[in-house]
Amino acid sequence: MANRSPKPDDPQPLPGRAEKGGPADRRDPVVDGGSRISAREELTLRRRRHRLILLALLALVAMTACVWSIVGHRSSEPPETVGLAPSVLFAELVEQLLQDGGDTLQIAEFQVDDEMIERIAGLEQIETLILDRGTVTDRGIEVIAALPNLGYLRLRHTPVSDQGLLQLSRSRSLWYLNLPQADCTAVGVAALGDTPSLRQIRLGSPRLGNDAGRAVAKIRSLRGVHLIGVPLTDEGLKAIVTLPHLESLYLDDSAVTEAGWSWLFKMHPQLHVHVNQRHHDRDPKSHPHHNTP
Length: 293
Fold this sequence. Notes:
This protein is an alpha/beta fold. It has a domain at 81-227 and 236-247: Ribonuclease Inhibitor (Leucine-rich repeat, LRR (right-handed beta-alpha superhelix)). The chain has helices spanning 39-75, 79-100, 114-117, 138-145, 162-168, 186-191, 211-216, 234-240, 258-267; strands at residues 104-107, 128-131, 152-155, 176-179, 200-204, 224-228, 248-252, 272-275, 278-279. Strands 1-2-3-4-5-6-7-8-9 form a 9-stranded mixed beta sheet. Helix 7 (211-216) links the parallel strand 5 (200-204) and strand 6 (224-228). The radius of gyration is 41 Å and the shape is elongated.
């Protein structure tokens, strides 16, 4: 039988398509670049990708476990080991000072106690000692006061008592004393009158009152006075300015009245005066500078 010619209105198959269930439905998938892979190869590629992802996740888990293991080991170290660190650091700083031949020992990173201070007993090269954190008692102060060439001393957060000031008064070289958190009375302050080289004092204590003015006036070598949180009145102010070499006076939280300040600038017009960390309005020597901590 002869083949029938398609009529013009017979539907024509679209290029690249086949009847449902025909060969086109079973063609191999096309990968990048236009090449074709078999279904088995595609399955292999998928398994390979899954394997790589799994390996990456396992590596991440292992790394995380390792980090936590290190952190946990450090946090489980006995407290004794952590407690020894400051004493070891102090010993290393002293050793470094001896090797370098320096004259300044300054520590702000950790607390210093009496046992550490014992390490510097008798060291002639120390001229400046600054301890910004500490629990130094009168026992440690005795060692500090005996340093033969100590000139500049700052002890913060150290409740130095009257006994400690008495020990410091025996220093022949001390010219600057900064004890902002002392625990002394006017009796201890007056004892500093026996310190021959003392030129500047910065002192704060909850046990000091108006009598601190008369006590400070007994340290006749002073050129600079800074009292912190001392309720000094006009009477105490007038006592301090009897110092023969006084050049600067700093008072924080005092009880001096306006009448007292007027008297001061009338009688001592050249005195450099700070009130509550600022120059007094009538200070003749007002100038920008940094406050001493």
